[in-house]
Structures are given as structure tokens and as C-alpha cells.
Amino acid sequence: MSKTAPERSVEAIDAPLSSPKPLLARWLSPPGPPAMRLYHSAGAAVMAVPGRYGVSYLLLGDGAIAVADCGSAADIEPILAALRWLERDPGEVHDVIPTHLHFDHMMGVDPLALRVGAAVTLGRVAWEHVNEGRRLRWPRRWRLLRAIPTWPMQGMPLFPAVDVRGGLGFGFPWAQNHFRAPLGPALEDGQSLPVLDGWTVIETPGHSDDAICLHHAEAGWLIAGDTLRNFLGGELNPLLTDAEDYRRTKRRLGELHVRLVFPGHGPTFALPGGVQGLATLPWWMP
Ligand SMILES: [Zn+2]
To answer: Which domain holds residue 223?
Structure first.
């Protein structure tokens, strides 16, 4: 068990569990693939569980757990293995929370929630999409082109049979996003997570209309979904649905105490200068 300290007050422990380390990701993405790792800091604990397309995060509280993102039904087993290693009961998972309704963050959300007996809990905008048919916009085509090089940077993951069978109704422009697991009440901007102390919901539209981040102010931690990513060392996401929304989101996140980012893609990264310090990538970069 190795220990490293990305920030002085943070303890990080590598879990002795296998996680994907695709060769392409090691070649093409300077920070490399994410690690299966447990982080502890002031009153907060998060376990990163790398998955098929992105990273799931287990937010660990006293007697309660929330899971942020589950991109693939194939990610359920590694999440259960992480819970076993943590000596936590899967029944403690109270909410499975997709940071936004894009397939690579949520094809495993419904089957995971059913498996552990949790609620699917959505941000207000995603909740209105699912319950009231609110339309969600998608990035325009030319912007989508920028996403293509990032697929090999994650190791070119293919869809496993479980996602082809059960996942295609989730997170695509045509998808109904019909959950079989019970839906929790909508998470409102600025509210605390229902059963986890210290975590606040922040609406962060821009990459998608329904994007949310989860912020732990005391620890300075941010579960970022696709609002921030780490293919190139930790960066703003150039794949946007609404650039003006994203500018506002960046300004808002810049006012928060954020020192460690848990991105939807790529390894966790330290941010000593906060979100304000992140540069915008030039147009020709992926
Ligand atoms: Zn996305």
C-alpha cells in the first residue's frame, strides 16, 4: 500500500485492486490513467474508482455513501470491490448521482442503484428533463469533433455487451432516460447532499445544460463531472453546449475554495490557485 500526498492536508491511499490502465491512455494522456485511490482530508473521504469510460467517485460519510457517476454497467463490479475493500456495506449507498446525463457518466447508474437499493438522485435540470420532458441541448457538431481525440486518450474503450443491451436508452440525444430505480427528490443549487455532511450541490451548466458539481468547502474538494477534466494535466473542458453558461460557471467555481479536483475523466489533480487559475485551451488542442 503506497501513500502519497497531493496536498499537505490530504492523505491518499492506493487500493490493492485492479483498475484499467490502458496502454493508449498511458501514451497519449500526459497525466496517464486514473488510479483506484482513497482520499482523506478535513471531514471528507472520497474513493476514486476508474471505470470503462470515466471515473466513479464514492463519497463516504458516517453510515451513508453517495456514488457520483457510473458510466457503464461494467463499472458496478469494481465499485462493489472498492466497497468490500473499504469494509462498507453496499446497502449504505443512499444515492447514485450522475453529474449530468451523458452516456459515459450514466449507463451504469440505473443498474447500480437497483443492485444496491439506492435512489437515483438528479440535479434540478436533469430531474425536470426526466420527469417533465425538459429538453437538454447537446454540443454542436463542430464542437463534438474536439471530443474525438479524447477517446483514444482514455484507451479507446469499446461498449461492453451489458451497455449495448441495457445502456443505450441512457445519456444519448435520443435517449428516454427512463430509470427503473426510484428517483430521489431533485437536488437544488446550493443545497447540501441529503445524507452526507459537508457536500454542497453546485449547478454548473456549460458542458451540458444539466451539469452539476459536488463541492466540499472545508476540504476544498470538487467532484467535477465533465465541467473540468484531466487529459492534459487538469483543464477546462472545451466541449461545450453553451459557452456563455460555461463562462459564468467558471467564474462561480473560481469563487469557491477548490484545491483538489476529482474529474469525470483522468486522474485527480491539485489546484493550488483554485479554478480561476485554469487556462482555456487553444482551439487546436483536443
Ligand atoms: Zn459529458
So the answer is: 3-134+146-156+187-277
